[in-house]
Structure formats: C-alpha cells, structure tokens
Amino acid sequence: MSKIENSKIINYINEICSLVKNKKVHAEIRAELLCHINDTIEDYLEIGIPEDKAIDKALIQMGNAEIIGHGLNKAHKSNSDWLLLIITTGLIFFGFLTTAFIQSNTSNDAYYINYFSKLLVFLGMSIVLSLCILKVDYRKLKKYSLTFYISSIVLLLITLAFSMPVYGMKRYLIIGAFSLDTLAVTPILLIISLAGIFDNYNWNNKKSLFKGLTLSFIPVILFIYLQSLSTIIIYLIAVFTIMHLSGFKLKYLIIISASLVSIFLLCIFKTAYRIERFFIFLNPAKDIDGQGWIYNQLNTLRNSAELLGNNSNINLSILPDANMEFALTSIIFSFGWIVGILVIALVLSFIIRIGLISSNTKNTYGKLLVSGLCSLFAVQFILNILANFSLSPILGINMPFISYGGSQLIINVLAISIINNVYKFRNVSSTFTN
Question: Which terminus of the chain faces fewer neighbouring Cβ atoms within 10 Å, N or C?
C-alpha cells in the first residue's frame, strides 16, 4: 500500500524528533518511524479495521512519543569518544617526553636542538585542523574520494621526481622551512579515498573488479619505485581489509597475498647476502660490526633497563633514530619497564578501541573508513614493537604519535579526528545526501 501520512502521524513523528537534539539524524528517524507505522497500519487494515482506527491503534502500539524521543536522543548523541582521545593524548605525551629527553642530550647539532619546539608547532597545527574536521559530517568526505586518490598519486609522483634520497629512499618533499613526509601522509589519504570508492562496490562485475584491483595496486608500484617495503606492507594490509569488508572474496585475497609473499621471498632468497641481511636479527652476533650492530645495541639497552629506569637518557650516538623508529627502546631504557609496559598497554587499548568503533558503526562507508585506518595504525604499531624487541627485521617503521615527525603527527591526528567523527554518527546508517 502507499504510505499513509495524516496529521496524527506527522505530529507524532515531529514530537519524537523535537526531543532528539542531533538534527542530522532527524531524516533517518522520520523515515524509519514512518515505515514502522505504515507497516502496523497495513496489518490492521488487512483484518478489516477502518483506516482512522488503524492509525490510532498503530500509534498506541508504537508507544509514548516522549519516551521514544528521549531514548532516541540518548542513542544518537553526537558526543566525542573521550576514551579514544585520552588514549591518543597519552601516546602523544610519551612522544613529547622522549623528544624532550633526546633534545636535552643533544647539543652539537642545531637541527636536533629544535626538536621539541618544532613538534609543538606541528601539534598546534594538528589541533586546529582537527577542530575543523570535527565540525564536518564525515559522510561528506565520500564524494571527494576520487579527488583524494588522484591527489595522493600526484603527490607520490612529485616525490619520485623531485625529492632527494635519504638512506636510499625518496620520501621527503621540502616546502620552505618544512618537509613533507609523503610516505607517512599518502597511505592514510589512499585509505580514506578507497573506503569511499569501495563502499557498495560491485566486485562481482569483471569490469569493476579490474578497475578496483587497478586502483588498489597503482600505489604499490609507486611505493616500489620509492623503495619503501614497509609502506607497501602497511598499505596492502589496510587496503585488503577494506576490500574484504566491501565484498571482495576472502579466498581471492588469500591467493593474491600468497602470490605477493612468494615474490617477496623469491627476491630475498635469490642471493645469500640478502638472506643473511634479512635474518640477521635472529643472530646479530654474526655481524656485530655491521648489520647486526643495531640489534646488539637494542638488546643491550633493553637488558640494562631497570624497572623504574636508569636515570640516564639515550642520545643519538648511543642509539640512532632514538626518538623515531626506536622510541620505544628509548622509553624503556630511560624510564623503565613499567613505563614501557604502560606504553604498550596504551597501544593495545588504542587498537582495540578503534576496532570497537568500527564494529559498532552502522554506516558502511564509516565502517570501511575506520577499519582501514585501524589496520594502518595496528600494522605500524605491531611491526615497530616487534623490531624494538628484535623479533623482526628492522623495516624503518615509526611508532604513530610517539616517534618524532611533524607530517606524521599531523596526518595521524587528523585520522583520529575522522575516526572520532565517525563515532559521533555511529548510529546513523544512511548516506549523506546534501
């Protein structure tokens, strides 16, 4: 039957919506209530009850408008996820603490002396941009998905063409007094874009399948040319997560993953030198003055760390990248195992919290967005922790929020702002239409 909308129904729905403070969900609430009411009216009409009485009975059956309104208002409160923000603040705090200790021990290099002040500037920029994002409904981002994707590809191409290699890897674009770490920024931008592109995607159509795989693997080719194995690993796990949740069959993902791992292992095992270099972390004593030096240094620092710290600070001569890739080892050595365990607990809480937000988000685009970003963070944290404990090869992966890096801090804080925005509208399942 056609929808019945008389003054009683309209007034009933208006009364409910007037009690829901989050006006952005009113349209969805109206549509859902109207659907339920009409279904109930139709049931009464089928047993011969006149329309006017059927409407009255349906509204009575729905329940008191005030009670429903207060219940929906509670369910659709657009509050921030303060637990996630507190955990993130804790991680940033330890990042600043580590940077301050490194700076206090570095007096012969002007670049390192300004570590802390630079980080404060980037944090200020991050907060301002995050406040702007929180004012916008995240669902608006979906229509700019292709724009984000193209911008990311262009940024990678510019980096490939114009950036200067650092340790054999091209990743930094110098812009005035600042440098942009494109390998920290582009994976997040790509995941944001592909979450929008793959929302309600038809993976069963051959043309769409080819298009989706092409979009997913173009960045991989560019990351290969930029010689960043770590970025490839992080990006692929995140994009495979989005693909699977958007309907791409798991068995095909397993086949693709197995093929990529086989190619990777083939490249490693092609020469004895690469095999030894890759697996030196298993026995660093074999090359104590070469590739094994850093693993021995990490083991020595961890073994000499005390429960409450050594009352001495690591500087860059003792441990290179002490406030970047090896920030966790710096924290454990300087502040003790208790603080180190606290940091790891914060990391686990951070990952679990984002995972819960993803699982409780009704909107499919929001779910893909949060799941992809959760995968990005989780892989970085896990691989960084394993490397710091000499349980995996060192891949040059920094720890989000804790490792020093202006571009990384800004883009990571912005990612958390987007996740927080999704949390605010987690009970809204409809797609933004304005």
Answer: C
